[in-house]
Write a structure and sequence with these properties.
Layout: H1 29-41, H2 49-61, E1 65-69, H3 72-82, E2 88-92, H4 97-104, E3 110-113, H5 124-130, E4 135-141, H6 150-160, E5 164-167, E6 188-192, E7 205-209, H7 212-221, H8 243-274, E8 280-282, E9 296-300, H9 302-305, H10 309-318, H11 347-355, E10 356-359, H12 367-382, H13 384-391
Bound molecules: pyridoxal-5'-phosphate.
Pyridoxal-5'-phosphate binds near residues 71, 98 and 141.
């Protein structure tokens, strides 16, 4: 029997709020013993855990060098500095604010390009149109864990002799169409290990590159630019990863291959259940690529679904299902970026930011929870006509935050 939507008086799909995501962390006696050893040694920074973590990640990703830092934002800031980028940096507007902030912290102007309509990652033709003689670098993003078309973007950048770097905050565990791991592409890539990402160490970032001299420069940069003689070579930062974070990261990495497989299976289950819903569209991965599924995002076409994204969100919150509106507003519509370069309209970004809805997904989520979420969405679609009258002014319904 079809469920009655909670907004129309049915029992909510869940008795307690399902979060939009949760980190999957290992908590066992081994991890706690390693943390204890770090604390007892008093060597909470620049000791052995971070160095071991860097080697283990390099092995897993198949990349020459890994430089652990305090966050992805810090890593991107230091990377742009180390590359000596001058001129504007092209960034997709459909991303998290930190992609743009890292550019701004280097005193560089940001220029926006659009994303592709089906993959939602930086669009080659759009990038080509905004490149100019003063462009200094391109920053792509593996949006929601779908690999950006790095080979195509690298060809475009190589023709102009500018570096391509990737904000890989979402991409840990994903694979390029070639089969190589995300993290092994472009001039360098930067991961985030903060709690909402598919691979977390509590907090932290990882810069990956096959360029040994760039890696050496970044190691200096995360240490104030001080090689040890207290004669700083440039204005670096304290961008270090704490030893305790590396303990968490190493333990999490051991289980990660199994968890990412499971996460892919869960994303597949969502697709199986929701692709047939009229008006819902999923992000397309490049042919042959594997995603990390940082977020499970559907695009809601209001005409075909019967309700718009905000109205569907309101209905799902009543079912105790958390949602997010990533990335709304997109960067070019945020106050901080009003003065940024906007060489033309960004129609795909504007439509996505209006229609994209993030549903709950985490690696240890139960498949049965996804089925219940899918059932709730089907029920909302079936009753869309009656629901629209109730939720059309979504602000009038109280729920725990609209974002
Ligand atoms: C989370 C995120 C970041 C920032 O990562 P931090 O580790 O918190 O600095 C950067 N870019 C994107 C796309 C993100 O989602």
């Amino acid at each position: 029997m079809q469920k009655i939507p909670a907004v129309l008086g049915g029992p909510p799909a869940f008795a307690r709020q399902i979060p939009v995501t949760r980190p999957t962390l290992r908590v066992d006696d081994d991890v706690l013993a390693s943390m204890r050893a770090v604390l007892e040694s008093g060597m909470t920074t620049n000791a052995t855990e971070v160095a071991a973590f860097e080697r283990e990640v390099a092995d897993y990703l198949g990349v020459g060098h890994v430089v652990a830092v305090s966050s992805c934002t810090t890593g991107l800031m230091l990377l742009l500095q180390a590359l000596g980028v001058r001129g504007e940096v092209v960034v997709p507007s459909f991303t998290f604010m930190a992609s743009g902030h890292a550019v701004r912290w280097n005193g560089l102007p940001v220029t926006f390009a659009d994303v592709a309509a089906e993959t939602w990652t930086l669009d080659g033709p759009s990038l080509d149109r905004v490149l100019g003689p003063t462009t200094g670098a391109v920053l792509a993003v593996h949006t929601f864990g779908a690999p950006a078309p790095v080979e195509e973007l690298e060809r475009i950048c190589a023709a102009r002799d500018i570096p391509l770097i990737v904000d890989s905050a979402h991409g840990f565990g994903a694979r390029y169409p070639s089969g190589s791991m995300v993290g092994s592409g472009a001039t360098a890539e930067v991961f985030s290990l903060s709690p909402t990402k598919p691979f977390s160490a509590g907090e932290g970032g990882l810069i990956t590159t096959n360029d040994g001299s760039l890696a050496a420069e970044l190691r200096l940069a995360r240490e104030y630019g001080n090689p040890g003689d207290y004669d700083s070579r440039f204005a670096g930062l304290n961008g270090r990863m704490p030893e305790l974070s590396a303990v968490v990261g190493r333990a999490t990495l051991r289980d990660f291959p199994g968890w990412i497989e499971r996460r892919r299976g869960l994303a597949g289950r969502y697709a199986e259940r929701l692709v047939p819903v009229p008006g819902l569209t999923f992000q397309r991965l490049p042919q042959g690529a594997l995603g990390s599924h940082k977020d499970l995002v559907v695009r809601v076409d209001p005409a075909a679904f019967g309700l718009n994204r905000a109205e569907l969100s309101t209905c799902l919150h009543a079912e105790n299902i958390s949602t997010r509106h990533y990335f709304d507003p997109p960067l070019h519509r945020q106050t901080a970026y009003r003065s940024a370069g906007l060489p033309g309209p960004l129609p795909v970004t504007d439509r996505l930011s209006e229609q994209a809805l993030t549903l709950p997904l985490y690696s240890h989520m139960r498949a049965e929870e996804i089925d219940r979420i899918a059932d709730a969405i089907w029920a909302v679609h079936s009753d869309a006509g009656r629901l629209r009258d109730r939720v059309s002014d979504s602000r009038s319904l109280a729920y725990g935050g609209s974002r």
